[in-house]
## 1
Amino acid sequence: MREDRTADKAPGISRRKFITGTGVVIGGLAAGAGSLFSSCSPADVTRTITLATTKPQFICPYDGKAFDSFEELTAYIALEYPGLQPVDRYVSPYDGREFAALDEFRSYLDNLFSRAGFVRLNVNGTYHEVHVKAGWSLAFVLREKLGLTGTKTGCNRGSCGSCTVLVEGLAVCSCLMLAIEAENKSIVTIEGLSGSGALHPVQQAFVDNDASQCGYCVPGFIMAAVALLDRKPAASIDDIREALSGNLCICGNTKKMVQAVLACSQEADNE
Ligand code: FES
Ligand code: FES
């Protein structure tokens, strides 16, 4: 799959459009979008990682306080500014257009995003609004747009398994899936396994069993193993071999990887 690495041009989004008088501005989406519109060069990718906004924020027009949900915002306004109209209009941060109803405003933004080539990717429990081209693979977007370089690419054609991630709980070669196909689906990358700070049991088992050499293929193996054990906690050695059969290790360390995964299987506990 070919990715177009030429620079996209930003369509002139102004952060100043967030500032309004009495209306409610839904920000956040725009903060992420603004940073992502033009990101293709290495410098812009860095900017994307720094500024990518994960979900919309609802900003109080009276004091600028931000909330994660519209309900929290309206409750706050009712409490702190009881005499004032909680919300009288919605203002697009992109072009200043005003709307009287939230549904109308959301649908306008949805159309705007789809026209501009945005997709919403739920990666490791966090939403990203990413500007993509139709032919970009999920692997490319994860690595080059979101900076999640734990997902590796080798063959880029579905043969090595290095790029394996979980999509809706299934192990998927992210080099074969278009980013637009992954919209609003739950995506888990290797970075998402240790979000709490502790290694995932499968990661720990790989350490304990000395299951990596150069390590390049390891994230893909681990994601394939996690998908198996989530689906079948008492996986047999044959199950494990089959689940890992789509992953290649050029260093030839597959035996130890199978041992590591078996150590995490409930079947091992029963032996
Ligand atoms: S890079 Fe995706 S399978 Fe090899
Ligand atoms: S550990 Fe090196 S390719 Fe697998």
## 2
Amino acid sequence: MEQCASVEREVDKVLQKFLTYGQHCEQSLEELLHYVGQLRAELANAALQGTPLSATLSLVMSQCCRKIKDTVQKLASDHKDIHSSVSRVGKAIDRNFDSEICGVVSDAVWDSGEKQQQILQMAIVEHLYQQGMLSVAEELCQESTLNVDLDFKQPFLELNRILEALHEQDLGPALEWAVSHRQRLLELNSSLEFKLHRLHFIRLLAGGPEKQLEALNYARHFQPFARLHQREIQVMMGSLVYLRLGLEKSPYCHLLDNSHWAEICETFTRDACSLLGLSVESPLSVSFASGCVALPVLMNIKAVIEQRQCTGVWSHKDELPIEIELGMKCWYHSVFACPILRQQTSDSNPPIKLICGHVISRDALNKLINGGKLKCPYCPMEQNPADGKRIIF
Ligand SMILES: [Zn+2]
């Protein structure tokens, strides 16, 4: 954090200088314009009277030219001064942050073949779509001649259209979507539709007593959710009592809280993504966040390896020299480590369930076969190795 603060200090200096320069620049130019304007009027006046240019006026004119030149020169040199402050920011970044990260990444990563480059571009495009930056994504597709078919784009376009409406506090498109996906949302245990109806109801309540009838009529939408959200529905019905008094002065004022809108955007994104089979965060942002956690640890390890002069320890193949804890957020799949070989199972060496129920990796199973028979290393049940079944977590 200290590093960030010291870079920020330099950035603040530049911004401050820039602001003062801008004001000073405008003021000097304004003065100059005024001065030139006056002179022009005087010259025009002299021309009108048909008198030749007086010595005083020509002196003033040459003074004016000098003044213009001086001002421009001064402004240019002040501008140059800002350049040096900007470059100080760059130096502060170099000084405070480690820029040399190539050492902890396999060189092969940067040898981008066409296929890798396409994968990277695709990841960026997906991220842009996910962030709702549709035009930027389109532009990148065009410039990189990446062919993204409509089926891929469609869910993102729909999500963004609905989210944009929600940000404008327009519930219509989201409600329409939730109603048409009701069954699948219920299977996901989602309360999205209920929350949308609730928000609509609250909005009617905010309209005061004249909206009471409309609100009561709307309450029939809660009927399918009566069992699951009984308590919340009771609260909303209770609030009707205070409608005449004004909800904002009642014990139900929390219903009008603006945080419900932020919450509904979050619920919609989460549930819609899971229904459409999309991840809430793009693979690119997950990779980036993981990298931010992992890089400092890797840099430290690299320094230690170099210090102890055992560079052969980490050959940069496909594995890291140590396990790096990325936190629960980054746990996506269950992993199975073979209890016999103490190795994580993989596609080429998958976990196999024996008929006795014990699970070992296929490599371990192959090693344990003796005379066409296999004896489970846990419960010494003898069995046919071919009876083992691959299991998938
Ligand atoms: Zn067994």
## 3
Amino acid sequence: MAKEENKGSEQSGSDWKQFIYNPQSGEFMGRTASSWALILLFYLVFYGFLAGLFTLTMWVMLQTLDDSVPKYRDRVSSPGLMISPKSAGLEIKFTRNKTQSYQEYIQTLHTFLTPYNDAIQAKNDLCAPGLYFDQDEKDEKKACQFNRSSLGLCSGIEDNTFGYNEGKPCVIVKMNRIIGLKPEGNPKINCTSKTEDVNLQYFPENGKIDLMYFPYYGKKTHVNYVQPLVAVKIIPPPYNSSLDEISLECKIHGSRNLKNEDERDKFLGRVTFKVKIWV
Ligand SMILES: *[C@@H]1O[C@H](CO)[C@@H](O)[C@H](O)[C@H]1NC(C)=O
Ligand SMILES: *[C@@H]1O[C@H](CO)[C@@H](O)[C@H](O)[C@H]1NC(C)=O
Ligand SMILES: *[C@@H]1O[C@H](CO)[C@@H](O)[C@H](O)[C@H]1NC(C)=O
Ligand SMILES: *[C@@H]1O[C@H](CO)[C@@H](O)[C@H](O)[C@H]1NC(C)=O
């Protein structure tokens, strides 16, 4: 092609026409129809081969992935725990009676709990307690009601500071969503404190996590799903010093398939956090 262009400019017009279609030889763009067909065939085969190779590779890789699913499933299907408000280092620090010191925490809690407002939850289903809420494959999935009011003193409804103003803060413990997870037994959240005389109140009662909120079908089909929550109200012992640090660990109990003692993952089925309250 470069050679053609190097010829005189006055000739190049007809040369180009010749190049595009040469009536004598029947060449189109310098090639005969059969030559073009061959080239086309070559590329067709070539790219077909590449596509085939790609598909094969993909397929082989997916096969191996499939094989490893059961291996990892055990770990994946055991959820982690997290708290709200989630602060840096999982340390909740504030001064009683000092609104600014806990404003951010209660704001976080209010925002976090908004989807649980009874008025919003009214659109969801009243499910049978204690039973899994299994649903058909195809449909858009329904969600079970979890009323904000069931968190009682920690709902932020009657006491909109969640107890922070009186130094008895609420912390919400939530379990990560795991698609398809069905906890066995009677899962519940139990928290312990190394500090003596710390009183803990659970909402709902006993820190129970009802089975009706499982399984979860995923973001796409289970649009209105809200995960069950457990709120813990921390009532510290009477103050002796001006600074009380309370270290707490919350764990999932009562379910065989929810792990809570993995050495490598300290959030698997448990969460540790600190609460510091200045008077
Ligand atoms: C904090 O507020 C409570 C009432 O909510 C009040 O009884 C108490 O005296 C206050 N404490 C301080 C240090 O202001
Ligand atoms: C949620 O609250 C509504 C009304 O406030 C009530 O009718 C419903 O039974 C409650 N649902 C649950 C699961 O407690
Ligand atoms: C919850 O923790 C308390 C305090 O450690 C303990 O006495 C109780 O047995 C625990 N409950 C369960 C179900 O493990
Ligand atoms: C407060 O301190 C006193 C003495 O310093 C001690 O006797 C008492 O047990 C402490 N109270 C609590 C609740 O720790």
